[in-house]
Amino acid sequence: MDQFRVVIIGAGFAGLACARKLARRNCQVTVVDRSNHHLFQPLLYQVATAGLAAPAIAAPIRFLLRSFHNVTTLLAEVRNILPVERQVSLDDGSRLDYDYLVVASGASHSYFGRDDWAPHAPGLKTLADAQDVRRRVLEAFEYAERAATAAETTSWLRFVVIGGGPTGVELAGTLAEIARHTLPEEFRRIDSRQSEVHLLEASDRVLGSFPPALSIKARAQLEQLGVTVQTGMRVVDIDAAGVTLQDHTRLASHTVLWAAGVQASALGKLLDAPTDRSGRVAVQPDLSIESHPEIFVVGDLASATSHDMPVPGVGAAAKQMGITAARNILARQSNARTIPFVYRDYGMLATIGRNAAVGTVGRMQMSGRFAWLFWVCVHLFYLIGFRNRLVVLFDWAWAYVSFERSARVFTSEKATREATDGHASPPKPA
Amino acid sequence: MDQFRVVIIGAGFAGLACARKLARRNCQVTVVDRSNHHLFQPLLYQVATAGLAAPAIAAPIRFLLRSFHNVTTLLAEVRNILPVERQVSLDDGSRLDYDYLVVASGASHSYFGRDDWAPHAPGLKTLADAQDVRRRVLEAFEYAERAATAAETTSWLRFVVIGGGPTGVELAGTLAEIARHTLPEEFRRIDSRQSEVHLLEASDRVLGSFPPALSIKARAQLEQLGVTVQTGMRVVDIDAAGVTLQDHTRLASHTVLWAAGVQASALGKLLDAPTDRSGRVAVQPDLSIESHPEIFVVGDLASATSHDMPVPGVGAAAKQMGITAARNILARQSNARTIPFVYRDYGMLATIGRNAAVGTVGRMQMSGRFAWLFWVCVHLFYLIGFRNRLVVLFDWAWAYVSFERSARVFTSEKATREATDGHASPPKPA
What we know:
homodimer
């Protein structure tokens, strides 16, 4: 029997799980990704806040797939998808033929039509994003130490996080810890404990996808750490000098981080299928699209339902979708019936800081130290690669006893010299 | 007694040692560096070859100096030195007054007047350099896997290292190991073992600063690893497609690394003192300059002699100079006589690959596995910070048993999309 060809676009949780499920089957699988590594996104905020080095949460895609000889990995950017020709075209002009296509290109952040905010409020989706955020956060304290006026010092010591979902909560909590526990001894002209961390959420509570009781607990734990939480507060403008809120309050700040909107990958628009407001592709119960049953859309790019509920954009769901898509490809190839996707919800977890987290497991709710320990164990368990688990465990243990953060290093020396967007420039003397 | 003011420019081995020696003395010390971290440069090639993560060999300068309350750290670029006014001016226009100035701004690579080679043959002095080299090396294999013609595959699988000093030897040896041991299983269209690594040295032997017998041994160990070594071979041109040698041979290669010339920091020219051909400042026996006894020049920027021999540009010498400068500042301040700098040479070591190294300790020469183990111990011992020692030890132990390299991650996704210098563009189909 001839081998059939599967192309998988994207090697996140969904794409990687799909490739693994198709390994050693009677098919030729090609995984295309524009970066060379699979990223463990749940820990990306720790790279951004200098707690972990980038390689600790990333592994080369072709290393993860090396022993599956029917799987080829290509570092490439997809330029176009041609559903009628059953081809994917790449950035070098070459084309890949497929019998089945799995689109798992994920999502990025969205500024709700205000892309001019992007240079002033970076989001957090890739390792490059995380290193940019890390540089800005560490530079802010450096510039505060050099600031010529009290107003400038305040602007550099004020951090604004926009969006109260898990990423925003994690960033805000960690920034407060850095200012309070990691840095105080190291500066001579400023007191890093006088930093302000503001968490702004447009809806009426943080962690909106969690049970309301846990939102309240999360907020209390954030405030305990020194974070100023404002809910029901929309941002109406962002520029290099700060943020304007809907009540016309102005927060002068040089370090604004974006953890609000999500926009699905633009590849979704190339498929002959309806997309929702955030660009996600409506899929059939078996995760294929109606017009092309040989095309599957999985992960954050898919707008799927399970038990009549929308499937959340989390790593566990992406992984499960990848596996279901692989199964359905094998089923379709052998003329069997495809199975509908069923999301198994194991719960949710969000960490806030040292000994502070909230989460659910089934119907059980937890918060505080126990939730935090549970979070640590779960994330170590799911982290890719035995080696990375040990590395991260060591870094966390070290951070726990020393309050030190092990990756407080940034490299873009140029940024300290050249003012690109008004942000990276050192404070001018008054 | 009034505290006197010392400004130290640069927090490499020399500057950091000087600051530490002045800690808790009756002076106000300001350390100015344009990056936020002290870098353990002897291991920089391991970051470049994906063996270590950047934070493993770097630590925040202000963290290293946090407990010395008379020492202030500033992240800033020095714009000018004004010896008459006894001031240093910074990039934000502010000025620092000093009673004593220590210039320890080191050296960078030099292209012998051919700066147009820089985009095609990156050097290795900063973490940003190392991450650029890492990206190019890892991308080369990726592009080879995608290449449309055999000639392009060969160009991507051919690595040229220019300069047979310790850095060139370390890079060439490690590249050969990666191609032979780390990557073979991971590619489907190419065989990474068919990579070529060329080491080109203009003089008649590699490791010219070592005893000739060790140069011969080093060359044999490199060839054993699969490196093609050419000595007495000058490069006459470098472009995006490869290297032209003095005998008109052409080596088609997209990955050329520069480990040849060294150029002292441009700050040396701002002092009222003679400089040599590579920009190093001629210093008095006590490391001050003749025209301004309150200015000391140390580390790679200084052209110093000891026992009538030029002091080599190595980390140990830089450290010792930093300490001597600090002592002489204290001596001068108390009107005591300054002491001349005496270099204590503990030997030299260069690593080539797994179980392969050469070195001297006093009159003893060593090579092979024993030299390599000695190299491992020495580098772990001198690495800054207990934590970093453990991290690097773990990474090395892991690499030794697994042949895997733990930091095979690069982040500049943009580089894979945009052709900047002809290097980063993916191969076009024929």
